[in-house]
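hey m, so remember when u said the tokens were messed up on ur end? i reran from scratch. heres the input so u can diff it against urs
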Amino acid sequence: MIIKKLRFTNKRKIILATIVLLALALGIVGFTLWKNQSIHLATETTSKEPSSQSNFTSGGKREVVPSTNNEGIITDTGGNTSSIPPSGDWSSSASGAITVYSPAKNSLLSTGQILSGISTLDRVSFRIIDSVSGVIAQGSLGVVGNKFSGNFSFDTTAKEGRLDIFTVNADGVESNVIEIPVRF
């Protein structure tokens, strides 16, 4: 049996060196991503509310988690709105029972802005969730002449979050949920 000796030509040396460097670079990138994720997961909050999830997913009916530790409010203005944005900016529940005119998805949400829309129901509930503290405001608004509105007032250090608009049935189950991603 004859064993041939491997000869490392310059071309093979270059290919081998490239593979080693690529594997090293991928290892460093993977470690950095893992380390950054660990740091992000360890972020502490000063809120007394449950922490929000890092990924905001839509869903169907959910049990309401009552809380009295609000860090913000929406003042009910009885369905009064000064303007209605273009219908392309609206968000509606799957059933059509609630349509939110404002705020629009991925818009900048701040104190003083208005939550407005229409509903075929008597009341709509809301919840503001930020990516740092979790729930920072929640409550409900009356529907007057099929319209609802309120002024936001809240404090957050987060850069992003979500506004949920929904109804709560007699059993305390949420339905007609609209989830609007927002920036702060």
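this time it looks ok to me. The CA atoms of residues 48 and 69 lie 7 Å apart. if urs says something different then somethings off w ur setup not the seq
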